[in-house]
C-alpha cells in the first residue's frame, strides 16, 4: 500500500524509547495487573478530564456495558442511541439486557439528533447514549436539557473523541457517565486493548469497581453479578506515556484535516467534515461525503491509497435485527441511510506526510476531472 489508511508503526515510532523503559520497569517490578501503573493512569486520566473518578476496564465495549449496568438497567428498558455508529454501541445495550432505540443523526455533523431523541423518548427510556463520532461531540447542550427534564441518565460514548471539546467542556465531562476506548487506533490508544468509565458520582464509581471484578466487595465475596474486565499494567503504562503527547498528536490531526479541506475546497463532488460552532474536532477520522463513492474508493485503491467506510450498514439494518428475535425501535432514519452510501474515510494519523496528503487529494481531484494543486 503506497499510502495506508492508518500506520501505527509510523504514529508510535517517536515513543519507542519511553515504551521500552516502561516495559523494563514493569518486568523488573513483577506486578502485571491492578498495580501502581493502573492506579496512576486512573488518577491522571480523571485529572485530565477534571472529573473525580476514572475506572479502567478491559476494553471500550466493556466500558459501555458496565456503564449501562451501573445505571441499573433491566429487561424492557430502552436506550436511545444513533443508528449511524459502530457495532459495539448496540451490542453493549443488548449485553446490558436493554433494548436499543435507534435515533436519527444531524446531517451536517453525523452525530445524534436531539430532535430525534425527543421523538423517541417513552416511559421505558432509561438512558441516552450520545456517541461522539469521528472526533466531534454531539450537540450536548440540548441532549443534556432533554435528559435532565425527563430524568434520564446521559451516557457519553467517547471512544472516538479523546480531547474533543463542546462549548468549553471536554468529551466525557457533560454526561452522568462516560466510556472511553483505548483500542490501538484510537487518538489515545494502547498497544493492546483497554477502556475506562469516568464520572463524578461516588456511588456510580463504587458500583463500577464492583462490576468490573466479579462483583467483589471483599476478596472472594461477590455481592452482585460482575465481569472480569481489568486493564493490565503494561497498557496503563503505555497510556500514561501517550496521554502526555496527546495534545501534540491532536494538533497534527487538526493540521492534516485543514490541509485536506483546503485542497478539496473547489471540488463540489466532495463534502468535507463540518465542525460544530463552539466545538473542537479532534479528527479520529477524516470523513468526506463523495459522489460515486464506491467508484472513487476503487480508484484510490488502484493507486495504493487506503480508505475505509465508517459505517456502511446502519444499526437498524443489521442482520442481527432482521428476524425479529431481538427487539428494537427506530425513528425515521432517512438521513442515516443516505449518508451510509456516501461517506468515505481518508488516511488520517499523526505522521502522515504533507506530500501524501497532496497525493490523496490530487487523486480525488483527478477522479472528478479536476487539475492537481
How many angstroms does the end-to-end distance come to?
23 Å
State Rg.
Answer: 21 Å
Strand order of the largest sheet: 1-9-8-5-4-2-3-15
Helix content: 25-40%
Specify the structural class: alpha/beta
Overall residue-averaged pLDDT value: 96
Estimate the strand proportion: 15-25%
Enumerate the spans where pLDDT stays under 50 for 5 or more consecutive residues: none
- Contiguous helical run count: 12
Query: How is the main sheet built?
Result: 8 strands, mixed
Order of helices and strands: HHHEHEHEHEHEEEEEHEEHEEEHEHEH
Bulk shape: globular
Total DSSP E strands? 16
Please characterize this protein's 3D structure.
There is one protein chain. Helices cover 38% and strands 16% of the residues. With 373 residues, it is of the alpha/beta class. The strands form four sheets. Strands 1-9-8-5-4-2-3-15 form an eight-stranded mixed sheet, with helices on both faces. A three-stranded antiparallel sheet has the order 7-6-13, with no helix packed on it. It starts with 7 loop residues before the first helix and ends in a 6-residue tail after the last helix.
Key features?
373 residues, alpha/beta, 8-stranded mixed beta sheet, 3-stranded antiparallel beta sheet, 12 helices, 16 strands, 16% strand
Question: Layout of helices and strands, plus pairs?
Answer:
Blueprint: H1 8-12, H2 16-29, H3 36-49, E1 53-57, H4 60-70, E2 78-82, H5 87-95, E3 99-103, H6 114-120, E4 125-131, H7 140-150, E5 154-157, E6 165-166, E7 169-170, E8 177-181, E9 195-199, H8 202-211, E10 216-218, E11 221-222, H9 233-263, E12 270-271, E13 279-280, E14 286-290, H10 293-302, E15 329-330, H11 334-340, E16 343-346, H12 354-367
Helix pairs in contact: 2-9, 3-9, 4-5, 4-8, 9-12
